[in-house]
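User: Sequence for Phenylacetate-CoA oxygenase subunit PaaA below. Tokens please.
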Amino acid sequence: MYGNDFAGPDAGSDGGLLGQVEAAEAALRAAALRGRVEGDPAALQDYFDAVIAADQKIEPRDWMPDAYRRGLVRQIAQHAHSEIIGMQPEGSWITRAPSLKRKAILLAKVQDEAGHGLYLYAAAETLGVSRAELVDMLLDGRQKYSSIFNYPTLTWADIGAIGWLVDGAAIVNQVPLCRCSYGPYARAMIRICKEESFHQRQGYEILHTLSRGTQAQHEMAQDAVDRWWYPSLAMFGPPDTDSTHSAQSMAWKIKRFSNDDLRQRFVDMCVQQAGVLGLRIPDPGLRWNEERQAHDFTAPDYDELMRVIKGDGPCNEERMAHRRRAHSEGAWVREAAAAYAAKQQEVVPA
Ligand code: BYC
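Assistant: Structure tokens for Phenylacetate-CoA oxygenase subunit PaaA:
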């Protein structure tokens, strides 16, 4: 743990915000010193616990429990793979976008997703695993990617629905990850969320245009929302009662909110936006609950989610076949880059 994130207006050396941060840092430094000087594993654990309790960041050079490291590699790698596989359903529409402007926007969005994958692989590498190992784990099925990318994009309106709903769900899920306890992941998420927010708006704008177009365009937009609604709700994962990692992940402040809390937040956000779009959310059970100050809604089919996660979704095979092909066709690029890097190292400075 190192570095101050900010110096706020009420910063000061005593009672101000910065003073409190300094006091927390001093306590953490003392705990770290005890761990190092005495070589005591319990003291290292104390230091780790104190960093988490003080809402500070764990950095790559800090000691961390093995399970924390493994859990982060699992989540960050799964997230990175999702960004890379997530390029496929939209990528297939770049040549079919209805205008040059739409093509350019979609191309930029898909490129952003490649960038997100790369920041996330880089964040995972700080935990001592290489990108090549992570890619191998995706290709041989030991690691997953998000269920959502196993659904097909049938019409241009699907690109709007992905932007509005899928990127919208991604933002709701990922904004809290900007405060995740692992520094490199939290920092990668800040830029990713800024870009996701543009992505969501471009999808919203596509649907807005279609919804106010001809009757056929309006129907195409509604059909896309009908098909993407429940898979988007399922992106948040199984219900809290069945979530295997949530409790530990929240104790370590990797996750800040439970799957169900984020799902609820997403539904509440979408209801108002659907009204502006003039589109209907395909859930007859959707209604405002005055007592809970939130919407009641029909949960997605979690059996379907589990089937899709296990490989039995409409497009799992196609997505993985495409990824394997792209990986083997890219072998010469990786070899050329490695040969060039080796040559650069041989160059003796004059
Ligand atoms: N799909 O204990 P749980 C994007 C798995 S990228 C597949 O609740 P956790 C975007 C889970 O891994 C979208 N698997 O897990 C990109 C676990 O299995 P394992 C990706 C899922 O980790 C391009 C098991 O079910 N976003 O948005 O506490 C274009 C039990 O679940 C899913 C991220 O990766 C699922 N939907 O919570 C546009 C965000 N749900 O690993 C958009 C970061 C659950 O034990 N990740 N599983 O075999 C997270 O926030 C969390 O990992 C999750 C799951 C909320 C996804």
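The radius of gyration is 23 Å.
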